[in-house]
Fold each of these.
Amino acid sequence: MRNFNKVTIIGVGLMGGSIGLALKKRRMAGEVTGVFRRASTLKKALKHKAVDKASETIEGGVKDADLIILATPVHSIPGLARESLKYAKKGAIITDIGSTKKWIVDSVDKMFGRSKKVFFVGSHPMAGSEHAGVEYAKKDLFKNSPCIVTSTPKTDKKALDKVVKFWRELGLSVAVMSPSEHDRSVSLISHLPHLVAFSLAGAVPVKDLAYAAEGFKDTTRVAMSDPRLWTDIFLSNRKEIVKAGSCFEKYYKKIITAIAKGNYSEVVGLLEKAKTIREHIKK
Amino acid sequence: MRNFNKVTIIGVGLMGGSIGLALKKRRMAGEVTGVFRRASTLKKALKHKAVDKASETIEGGVKDADLIILATPVHSIPGLARESLKYAKKGAIITDIGSTKKWIVDSVDKMFGRSKKVFFVGSHPMAGSEHAGVEYAKKDLFKNSPCIVTSTPKTDKKALDKVVKFWRELGLSVAVMSPSEHDRSVSLISHLPHLVAFSLAGAVPVKDLAYAAEGFKDTTRVAMSDPRLWTDIFLSNRKEIVKAGSCFEKYYKKIITAIAKGNYSEVVGLLEKAKTIREHIKK
């Protein structure tokens, strides 16, 4: 079913490219256009068949679009929303895939305040990998992934419904919440694990890596993610990350103190509680 | 090539069972015997074809063995080494697969002091998974995994060579070092990641797990490991784990402080350094 005839993706990397591939596989759009800053990415994206058409300007890319997806690093999203707003046609919907929401949605809500013709709805499809670049894009990257769509008093309800439906048809499992609630939840479930993985990898002397087995590899896999992308995410959600960090530090301190004291039953109890939580999700 | 005609595995769970399967696949032993405490495990192990023969007593299992592998939780290894020593034939070699080495090897070296006929060499094949039980045993669990074999002034050099050769033929990549050096290295590369994964899982409210994507799953996968097994490992290597914890805490504090201050270039620098370290190993 086509809810949007023309979909434009601004920023065609791992995420934007995977959305393009999934849209085409599911025939969810009449045409998928990509907007590129770099000619080299454009070439790769067309070769990878991630988009049908390519534009090197925002204006050219968004002017006929029914849905515009901003798939660039967090800090650039409000500016691109402003640019897209300039050229978008009446009734167009703009969404994004940024990993933090309050900073983005607050910024965009302000600038869209007077606009009646173009709507913004914040999204965060929670997939990805430690790889970056359209060459890693996969049509199934988002299948069965969670997706949070944000709602604020300024959000147009029809546009919200359409964006929710869009992600559902793309195979994601969607929840709607406020940007603040998103940032709190995601700081614990995504930002904190990345921070901890980077800290673990950073703490290990290279000479000891020879003995790294699956446990270390799994636990630190996301430390191979793009440092600039993640700094961007961390800084745009710093208050919640510091709070999430406190929860982690508290549990960690409890375990390591019990280990240092040699308190067997206390350590077992803390590990059992953690295991029970982790087993709520599969794999 | 058969270096050991009869191999006996005491404790046939995930690890012991996988050794049995690998030995049989590679025809590295004339006969593989398992020693079981529980009849239910014995039944499962025979069904899984992890061993050729089964014994419910140490005496029956080890008396003709050329190589005895202690594949039980850390705390039980010195006691089982003492039991095995009683019944083992002249020239037999005993090794183990315990995740900490100094406590085990020190304990065993003391009791083997007067023995000229049976040799002990500590081993730590570094594979495994968050699953426990012989039903998860796989013949390829150890393929290309690192394995540390320990050497002390009391270690018999011929026995050491045979144990090193044994793990190499089983497909592992072997390094020889002192038990202390093992414990230091492994506290950073294995024990600490487990501790951190348990802490992460323990810190997250269950209601937020709905939004857990691959990053969270990878980073906390090992928090599904057996709590008793891991408490055992943590307590037997507590001094090194506390030291490894300090290294981790230092790096973590650096990143989170830079995030709180909003220092972009400092955060990028720390993440880049961590990524570079992680990229020394594949996957």
Note: Strands of chain B lie at 4-10, 29-35, 53-55, 67-70, 93-96, 119-121, 123-125, 146-150, 173-177.
Amino acid sequence: MSTIERVGVSLEKELLGQFDGLIEKLGYTNRSEAIRDIIRERLSQDHLKNPQSRAVAAVLLVYDHHSTQLADKLLKLQHDCPLQVVATTHVHLDHHNCLEVIIMRGKVREIETMAGKMTSLRGVKLGRLNIVGTDV
Amino acid sequence: MSTIERVGVSLEKELLGQFDGLIEKLGYTNRSEAIRDIIRERLSQDHLKNPQSRAVAAVLLVYDHHSTQLADKLLKLQHDCPLQVVATTHVHLDHHNCLEVIIMRGKVREIETMAGKMTSLRGVKLGRLNIVGTDV
Amino acid sequence: MSTIERVGVSLEKELLGQFDGLIEKLGYTNRSEAIRDIIRERLSQDHLKNPQSRAVAAVLLVYDHHSTQLADKLLKLQHDCPLQVVATTHVHLDHHNCLEVIIMRGKVREIETMAGKMTSLRGVKLGRLNIVGTDV
Amino acid sequence: MSTIERVGVSLEKELLGQFDGLIEKLGYTNRSEAIRDIIRERLSQDHLKNPQSRAVAAVLLVYDHHSTQLADKLLKLQHDCPLQVVATTHVHLDHHNCLEVIIMRGKVREIETMAGKMTSLRGVKLGRLNIVGTDV
């Protein structure tokens, strides 16, 4: 556990009141915890701007599992980069559609390239990428 | 399988050239497929603007697994909404940090509320929410 | 000027060091100022989620000024909502393209609708909307 | 005016129906125009990922015009980069707050740096950056 420091922050009373209202709505019971979280979020945004940063990501793919050989192509893509794909979760959405969530680790640029390749496969209807920095 | 229609689109030659360059870079082998994908993405954005829309989502949480009772609190939150949580994947990032990816189904507003509750738990360092529409 | 309050925040030493590094890079000379800014940004995001919130916005439109009657149509749209459009700035980008930045005040939903109408006009190539809350 | 090409796109009937519904809501009277717009938007996103790309941008600043010397500092920042700042529009929001919209041209990275410097000035409460590519 890292050493804890205590710093003082000056805020207009009105701003503080609005912030306390927001964090109560979000479920925070502690103001420091909320401020730490928005600081980490801001740091993470900055960290991920660098395509060379290390990161972990989830790619969400919605696809029609009747698409010919799509599952094979997805598996092949994942196995061509065995160091990066940590885990895959597959969910049946309805008769046609699946959601596949693929957790990957690597550099931001590599993750974006791999997510692009997966999304562009025929049969993949929607692809979303969510990256978080690992140096948090 | 739904009926396929064929529509004609007029584009400036230069715009078409730029688009063909982009989709080749992204890995598409077929222009129709790429146009379908950006149409679906645009529809999905619009669909998710409505807090009552049905959606599926992945919440990514980075947390310190030494945090007292955090795992218990996360499990309790998930079990208090048993219909929504489809699957959870847990990944060890390093000695301190875990990534948990929680797949949920429900209305956009409910998903956002649940993601907020999870993110605001003490010990959760980063929370990200990625929602996709299910009517794709 | 509103009353100033001083609150204490506990942070891990390492997190504080990373934050100090970021805000120095961004040009801040004062940590409280940086924390106030990210708090305001977070509040603003929440405020703008409500389509009924009051806001001020800039719409950026890139268009070909040779497009028949486009300038007239844009002007007409703006005059059909005289209370909302505060100011318009027009910039020549190159022989064909102009940038028009339209500053509007009103409710989030009204602003979004108006921005959509402008962007969908024939000849408008790109439209971007940037909304900020006015209760800051 | 660039040459117009006509390409055929295959879409599921249901997807086409949903898209026609969306673009009618957005105010489009022509399907090609709507598809051109989402193609340009997608190209623009890709273009702006490269920090060396040429772009035009609007920075929105909300600030308290009672802040000591803030207007001077903002002007000085703008004059230190005379080639980039195209135009500035100033709007009074209420007794305390102003909105300033600053239109700049340059490379993506330079624009981001300048926007960061402006936002971090003491007295600037909110800063937003909206970049569009100029090769549209």
Note: Chain B has a mean pLDDT of 89.
